[in-house]
Amino acid sequence: MNDGLKMVFELQKVDILLAHVASRLRKLDSGETLKQSAEAAAAHYDRTSAEHKRLTTDLHDAELELRSVEEKLKTFEQRLWSGTVRNPKELENLEKEVNALKRQRSRLDERVLQLMDQVEASQKAVEQARQQKEQAEQAYQQHMQAYLAEKRKLEAEGVRLKQERQKLAGQCDPQLLQRYEAIRQRHGGIGISRVEGDSCMVCHTKISTSALRAIKSGQIVQCENCSRLLYLEET
Ligand SMILES: [Zn+2]
């Protein structure tokens, strides 16, 4: 048996956990897609609101114009029917003026009605856009809360594991530790394998009788197939 290998094997357990934590941190969704959706919904709301405001102003202007035309029309009609104007030319001009104002009023009536419809529709669109914006913002905030909590948890776990690793590394034989590090760098983070029966538990290859004997006598042996240090647990 070799106590040095036992320490390295314990260290590897921590290294595997550290790799797992690092992988989970990398896979966390930082909410970029939801953020973009929330920004798009906010921009859509702004555009819809601006359009509604513009239509409301247009409606207000059209109503004012209509009122002014109606006032004018009333004045001209009063003059026309008052009997005070007798000159035929002047009467004819007045009549033309009244007709022109009536046409203008009719156009404005139509425009006011059309704008009223548009304002009503845009009001609905604003309300819808506001709801979408709020929902998207809420989804993003909720996600971020969960994301940050998970990130903090994993980072704290990483700190704890690194401390544990440092402690264990201090207890390992430096040369053996160096050898383990070199192997795990070349072989996907796994530098040491447990032996079970007569097999390497990483690559599941049968270990030769002479190698097994050497392991049992406390020598440092690497797997002939996968190169990992071979560790036989004391029974
Ligand atoms: Zn192996």
Give the N-to-C terminal Cα separation.
10 Å
Number of E strands = 3
What structural class do the secondary elements suggest? mainly alpha
Beta-strand proportion = under 5%
SSE order? HHHHEEHE
Q: Please state how the strands of the largest beta sheet are arranged side by side.
A: 2-1-3
Number of helices: 5
Bound compounds, each kind once, are:
zinc ion
Please outline the major beta sheet.
3 strands, mixed
Gyration radius over CA: 42 Å
Q: Average pLDDT across residues?
A: 96
Total number of domains: 2
Question: Low-confidence parts lasting 5 or more residues at pLDDT below 50?
Answer: none
Q: Which architecture of the largest domain per CATH?
A: Orthogonal Bundle
According to CATH, what is the topology of the largest domain? Helix Hairpins
Shape: rod-shaped
What percentage of residues falls in helices of 4 or more residues? over 70%
Q: What's the CATH C level of the largest domain? A: Mainly Alpha
